Amino acid sequence: MNTATATRPLTHAELNETLSAVRIPPCPSIVAEVLREAQRDEPSMKVLSRIVASDVSMSAAAVKLANSPMFSPGSRVRSVQQAVNRLGINHILSVVVAVALRNTSSHLPADVMERFWSRASTLALAAGVLARGHVGISPDAAYTFALFQDAAVPVLMTTFPDYAALYTGAADHGYSLVQLEQEHFRCDHAVAGWLLARSWGLSDRIANAIRYHHDPEAYILPEKELPSDALALIAVSVIAEHVLGDYTHDAHAVGDRSFENAKTFLGVSDAEVDELHDTIAAALI
């Protein structure tokens, strides 16, 4: 494909035509069930516990997260009921959606998916830990966004037979995944992820952050297009990725411009970044 043609802005018609080919998986019934309960005026933690306990993978994920560094040190939880009570509704929703998404990608190369989900989980924990130190940024929202910001990658692997090779090549050689996606498929995982988030009932804040998390102009977009609370999630995730890059080869490289923009937006100093390195090293590595 001609690069000049591939990189020019797509018209709405071209974008819609391309995205119509992307196979967004339907929202599983268990996710819809949790969403219905979570949106009640008085959600029942007992009902949520029953739903989570009905799936072995979700039960294990909930207990593991409840015992993670995202939460205050204390006695370890050993049951689903204890995990649900400690996590709260938003984190339980994240667990359910994550496991359901992982199940939709079970037919994809196991080694690639294991690396993908391991990276997503580690980044989410780091973002949640970092968000605890910033007033006005919800740790559970930071965790959820970081976990799902790249969730459309498996969707695109399912849609396009040669996507897996492109994804692994970009990760191994430090290429821009979004640029390669746009050149080869005329869409990218940020836009597809936005559609996935909306289809599966995630909040508008999370969906908007996913849509713009690779946009180089994100920090100057008008508030009505990218609200500041969604931009804050992007900034926290960028700093978390930067910090993790020093500890794990699975963390994708964060460009200097993105990192500096995130620091400026959140008002984070170099000294605070050093402190964050220590916090993440102690908590996650």
Question: Any overview of this molecule?
Answer:
By secondary structure, the chain is mostly helical. The protein contains 17 helices and no strands. Helix 3 (29-38) packs antiparallel against helix 7 (89-104), helix 5 packs across helix 6 and helix 10 crosses helix 13. The longest helix has 22 residues, at 110-131. Residues 1-8 have low confidence and may be disordered.
C-alpha end-to-end distance? 42 Å
Instruction: State the order of secondary-structure elements, H for helix, E for strand.
Output: HHHHHHHHHHHHHHHHH
Q: From the alpha carbons, calculate the radius of gyration and give it in angstroms.
A: 19 Å
Number of helices: 17
Helix and strand content put the structural class at mainly alpha
Share of residues in strands: under 5%
How is the biggest beta sheet arranged?
none
User: What is the general shape?
Assistant: globular
Low-confidence stretches: 1-8
Q: Average pLDDT across residues?
A: 85
| Counted beta strands | 0
Q: What is the helix fraction of residues, given as a range?
A: 55-70%
